[in-house]
Amino acid sequence: MKYRILLLVVALVILAWLVNCANSNSGSKTGGGAIAVAFFASPPSSMQAGASALVAASVTNDPTNQVTWSCAPAGSCGSFNPAQTVTFHNTTYTAPTSVPSGGSVTITVTSVTDSTKSANASVSIVIPISVSLTTPPPSSLLIGATASVAATVSNDAANAGVSWSCTPAGSCGSFSPSQTASGASTTYKAPSSVPSGGQVTIIASSVTDGTKNASSAVTIKPPGIIGDCGSAGGIDYVMTYQSALSEWCVDTNFYGANYTTFYNGPFYAYSDAVIQYLRSLFQKAKLPSQAFIVEVKQPFGGASTGCDFAGGSYCNTVTGDAYYNTFTDPVTNASIPAYWGYLFTLHEGINVHTGFVSGGWPTDWWADDRSPFPNAFDYEIMQAIGTAQSNQTLLLSATAQKNRFDNQSQNPSGYDPQVAMFINFFTQFCQGSPCSGFPAYTNAFNYVVEDGISWPSISGDPDFTGDNDFSAQLSEYVIAYLQTGFAATTDQTQTFINDGVGSYDLPPTGFNCPSSNPQCTYPPYTVDPTAVWGVAAAHCSIQAAKGAGVNVSTQLSDLQSGNYQNAIATGGTQATCPSECAWSAAQSQCVPLWSKP
What we know:
Layout: H1 2-24, E1 36-41, E2 46-48, E3 52-60, E4 66-72, E5 79-81, E6 84-86, E7 90-94, E8 104-111, E9 118-126, E10 130-135, E11 140-142, E12 146-154, E13 162-167, E14 174-176, E15 179-180, E16 185-189, E17 199-206, E18 213-221, E19 227-232, E20 235-242, E21 246-251, H2 252-262, H3 267-281, E22 292-297, E23 303-305, E24 315-319, E25 326-328, E26 335-337, H4 339-357, H5 372-389, H6 392-405, H7 417-428, H8 438-450, H9 455-459, H10 472-486, H11 493-498, H12 529-547, H13 553-560, E27 581-584, E28 589-592
Parallel strand pairs: 2-9, 11-18, 21-22, 22-24
Antiparallel strand pairs: 1-3, 3-7, 4-6, 4-8, 5-7, 8-9, 10-12, 12-16, 13-15, 13-17, 14-16, 17-18, 19-20, 20-21, 23-24, 25-26, 27-28
């Protein structure tokens, strides 16, 4: 019995202890179970103004397990996001953007359940590191050039200095040394070739905080750029040469990748010589006083008259690869570099200058897709310049041009009888010593200009366009002025006829020409030698009468409109008969040097 009573007492004591324990775990904890707050991830002892840091706290014996964040001095101590967190969870503290009074802030973390339970930490707020380029690089540098650059790092307590880098990585150049003290200089060396985009970015970064940096863009240029031509079609062009005669505008990206093709090369002296020859050949045409522009584009496979600059009239456009691609002479098999560059620069220049004499030259035998006259004079002018400049590549190009069109025995498929005809006339009617055919052609062009002739007004072609102009009368006029310029004493009309004027540019018999091919539209026509003589006779009589002071406006108007039969002027004298003509005592008239058929 006593044993049972003892057991009951022990049980009651244990029950009382359990009840007391239960009561101690409900409500606010006190005594040995008090709430405690501590930093789990402490803030740094020092922070830059405006910088951020992750902080966290632990709270024990708090049923909410949450804390609130605050700081002092209020209003200038920064902010928290979020301002209340669960134990061990981070919040982002952002320091104030300026240094507060006293230079530091106090961060406080407080129990949500018991605001008397908190932890504090002091953080010094310092001015953030900043980097400035005190000696910035120039805005542009030639490839391989060097420049001294320097940067200063401010507010860096470690005074660790500057680290130098650039972009695009691997093609932006180098620094020596690549790390410097604040304010000290380093030498930047530009890359050996123009990088993609034509620019590099030089970057000076704080060693202590690599996110703090200063940068500057530098345009990397190849040598030989002397100016800027401007933009056309969204493409920038650099000026690589300029003289009183010629000017080169080259696609910036193309030049950067191919500058060695042009820099210190032969093409600039060549273009000057080309324009000298063409200004002399077409000396009475109303040519612009400005330099002739050669526009070089990214490769497009050809060339054309006109360009994107200076009004687009006194210039040409050439595919860039013409200046480095090779051409194989069809007869000698010689591989000739830049043949197309020499050819296109000149060929389209001839077309431009011819147009200033008059537009609408015969498209069937002068300057269509076959271009007999320009092709012939490509050879003559390349040969003359190559000899004068001792340019063997240019001389090979001249030979190749002749072999393309005027070597019937060794290149029959390329032979063009009208190219050969113009070359033969150049030799046959040469003047001076050494004998040259340029004066004969120059005279012919001069007479066209003097008489104010415009071929579209002569041809009578109802379907005339700039690329489609042909008729018997147009050919008779052109032949008359050429023969007069040649000072031919025998009629050459049959030579023109024999070499296909009026018949050569026709489709072969039985060939089904597509309507899109303009050569299929040329009907045959016959050139009349009497009409050729009549045109020349009108010219001679008008110039003689004009020299004698006679008003020849009516006759000149008739000649200009194609009515050459009524354009014979009277009143000229033997003394005023020009040298390209002869005085006929029997007719008391100034007439052509060759006899009337």
